[in-house]
Specification:
about 240 residues, four-stranded antiparallel beta sheet, rRNA processing (chains A, B, C, D, E, F), five-stranded mixed beta sheet, about 30% helix, 9 strands, homohexamer, 3'-5'-RNA exonuclease activity (chains A, B, C, D, E, F), tRNA binding (chains A, B, C, D, E, F), alpha+beta
């Protein structure tokens, strides 16, 4: 029934490659099937002006798509001179989610910028990005601990994300592009490694959905995220 | 317990004033307590280029805050030369929600732009905006039917929105600013007049939240939205 | 003869509502007939860099129109990414006029920003804005004196403004939109409460005008401004 | 008494050099003493979209200062990415003034763009620009008549401009920079060759001014403009 | 003597991976040692407006660096709102070089956009980009021929590029970052597969260089490019 | 054979006028035939932030074309809100070339900005700009030495530039516009007064060129630059 013959609850093959590029303190290529996102974590000492002198750190994220990561070429945002509303919405989501996973006091007056650049898109880029970014964040934190810049581990828990939705009347997990573009309802869920909710964003693309459907989607998301966290842990071990 | 002595489930006084300004096809001042948003609906014939010739209409929204609608003055976005990520995120939410309420085929090749401008902010501006924008939309649709530009009523149902959250460990509805800035969890919910979900966006500002808390918030939102729809209906009658 | 049946020298009903919104140190809704402008004055300690250490203050203004304050919807300047030349011309005029009314030494190293946002436009928005902004300025100065931030009153005199013009061959005062768009000559005058000139900007939209016509317009402006100042004084008392 | 030993009514030496550059249909270097502005008129067939099919033409102007036309270097507007409010205010003034001199019906569906670029600044750049632009406009109109693109002469009258002001308590004409920066009142006047008013913009930089002072300044302006028109006519003959 | 122990004439290991991503008509990852650039060629029917109806095609290029492709993080150009001068200079160079390799008449009214995005930077990104872009271009042309969109092969010859320079007094080929940043002279050379020159850009970073040094660098470049073309041909066969 | 009847090696008449405008520390009008560029050098104490405290100076350049310096009017870059890629490429070239001529240690913590504004264009504007800018630079350096701001002369050597190219199969020097637009190969060369190379940028506009053609062009450039340096020296003496 699904174009890929997956069962409703089945995610795509998920792989996480650490140290994908050389310079960043954390550099992860995350793949959810044909969706491939490069997540780099850049650690710098110091914080933005609005946080100076408060003894706490900052984590933020930026998101971009390579112009031909998509089926037809998109305009390059740098050439157009501004980031789209979609881009801003996504990078705000990624940043919020990562900040929830970090104890800012333990991070001290240091900043981590996570860049999530989509190399190839096939649906679910924002949830793949959060999943990969969390691993890059861990690597950057470990780098800083190895350097003695921070003492205790600021990571409160791993976070991971998945998209779920209602497609042809059925709740499915980890939608690929052709499912996503035909879905009646689309929901992105970010959870901790213990299944608590960090962020939930559900949208009725077609018909409004009921509380029952919402609950069904949540269960699906929780199960998928448990599997995804296992992939994160395997990559980190 | 709440700064305003409201019960957890109690919304602020909500008023909807139609025909607040003279030129727009729909013009509504919506007030959720001290949050005041002017929502105007502008009806024009024709659609954006990407929809031409498809026999369907378009609904979109823009959002702004007057520089001193807030406690301390914010920079004017027109002077800075760009809209913030927050602004774009909100106006995309408003637009999506309103489009869910309209049958685009019945709208025909016509466009409605909803401008939501915050005159005074005290938390919940985006949910107030959606609530007021829906009434302005109805007025603009009725205007167009009165002019004979559209035949059947494209409105599928009324929509309304409320913010709910966990504040000092308790689930409360319709957060005002001091509650919102201290909330552990913040959730914006958009529903139809019959209580189906259009959009749900929940964020753990502090600690991650559980499924039980999510359910509790949803019930609170559903009840509040039922009341808010009654205010919409009273204003429209 | 005038669309509103006013006599040539007659202004529209002018009302000034103080404390229109809650947060600003001065907040005034000024109405010249159907033209409605919200003027807020924001008082902050400190001055822009170019004035630091000179023992004097700064007053500046920004102007905007809500997209549907006009007959047909205008593009939102924040979305277009820049303020129009008209907007900049008007806000420079408002700022210059207000600075003329303030003793910058007595203001001390403090800044007042006046935001003039047009809620509904029917001609004469810039002169209404100056008139309302002056009252908001007074409120902000009084607020600062009440707080003990400034000692002596920096206000040198009240200022007010009106548009005058030649319409169907006759000099008239306080043009509304349909008069304004058909006027042969359009002149905006800003004066002190004692009738001295702060700014005069006259433009031949159609035929060039003579010195005699200029003088006639000035007399008209002086008389109208005297009345408008009375409204300001009544609002402030 | 004046830094240049001029009498109050005396303008600086004014020269107008036509055909200063090779490519433009009209190209004029205008000098008011040490203020030097290059004014080029570019004639193109066709009109902007908002005028299409109405059988009339369009005249507009743009203004710029070379970065080191001034005493200390100004930022290049092209590098900063926007034109200042002052620039926009000035180019709007120049455009309005020139449009007043042209019969748009006789111009037909053709456009003239006047570029006024300040090579060297010593006060009065906008009035010098208007004066030179008018001559460049005449050359471009004659070029188009020579080509047979337009039949009748669309020029209604020559226009010229001068700045006048109150300096050390006395009304003076054609202020140079050090006078301008110390003037209590500054007024720019644009008139037709027969002394009718096209535009008047007077600002109290220091103290408000009286009607008597305004009249005195107007007389001064009228006399100076009469002389300046003579220079235009000599250059054109 | 070289940090990598290469001989002066020795290039880094060069690899070209085709079909690196799925959507583009040509997609190549090119590696010059640790410099890695993703080059995608997007083929679309139609040409930009300035070429319409002339029976010829268009080839253009855009260039970007991922923010953390470099040792320390660079600002994201999309977030800053503009491309740097360096970026524009490089993408203009890539576009010119590729256009020299294509017969625009045989391409017909079709457009190819080449996006060169630097995944990891270690010197020579622009020459690596040209080398990889040429292979992506060939793939896109073959794709279009396979589809029957174009008949004859528009490729005139392969092109490839290398950077050469004078480092510690000696002419060397294919500079890596630490050589590049210390080089006295830096020269980028683009040649055809038969060794004719498409573009040469040489800059004295330290001391001016002599004609003899220029010749020596050219010989070095020619030899390296011959080797690089062999890598291109092997990748394409 | 050349449109101007020049011999292949013959440059256009070249004139250099110093002190062309009044305010700049160096102000030069350079003319290569009908190409006229105003080059001003602005000397200011202090350096940009990235150089602070390093005991060395900075030289940079900006380039612009007046909108009607060209055959048909170009958009004003300040109005469009950004500099074109071509503009940025050229001003980067000018800046690099001038920095090669200055000993930054001897300049001390001072900055020189060179503005090159094209008054009239007929090919070769960037090489004319470099030639004129060098003379303006010398004047600014001498001004600073006269003021005692710098002690020793930071100028290492004069630099000058010329464009050469292959036109109708023959190597020619100092191309004017109609030659430039038809040239098969176009090369800009910047040299020191002793004939060493500062920058060489050669582009095959049509067919790729051979090493022999490159050498021929270089000889031509060297001879022309020797003559141009003589004009510089004559102007400076």
């Amino acid at each position: 029934m699904r174009p890929s013959n997956r069962t409703p609850a089945q995610t795509r093959p998920i792989t996480i490659t650490r140290s994908f590029t050389a310079h960043a303190e954390g550099s992860v290529l995350v793949e959810f099937g044909d969706t491939k996102v490069l997540c780099t974590a850049s650690f710098t000492e110091g914080v933005p002006r609005f946080l100076k002198g408060q003894g706490q750190g900052w984590v933020t994220a930026e998101y971009g798509m390579l112009p031909r990561s998509t089926h037809s070429r998109m305009d390059r945002e740098a050439a157009r001179g501004k980031q789209s509303g979609r881009t801003q919405e996504i990078q705000r989501l990624i940043g919020r989610a990562l900040r929830a996973a970090v104890d800012m006091k333990l991070l001290g007056e240091n900043t981590i910028v996570i860049d999530c650049d989509v190399i190839q898109a096939d649906g679910g880029t924002r949830t793949a990005a959060i999943t990969g970014a969390c691993v890059a964040l861990v690597d950057a934190l470990n780098w800083a601990r190895g350097k003695g810049i921070i003492k205790a581990n600021p990571l409160k828990f791993l976070i991971a994300a998945v998209s779920v939705g209602i497609y042809k009347g059925e709740a499915i997990s980890d939608l690929e592009y052709i499912e996503d573009s035909a879905a009646e309802t689309d929901m992105n869920v970010v959870m901790t490694e213990t299944g608590k909710i960090i962020e939930i964003q559900g949208t009725a693309e077609g018909e409004p959905f009921s509380h029952e459907e919402l609950l069904e989607l949540l269960v699906l998301a929780k199960n998928s995220i448990r599997e995804i966290v296992d992939v994160q842990k395997a990559a980190l071990s």
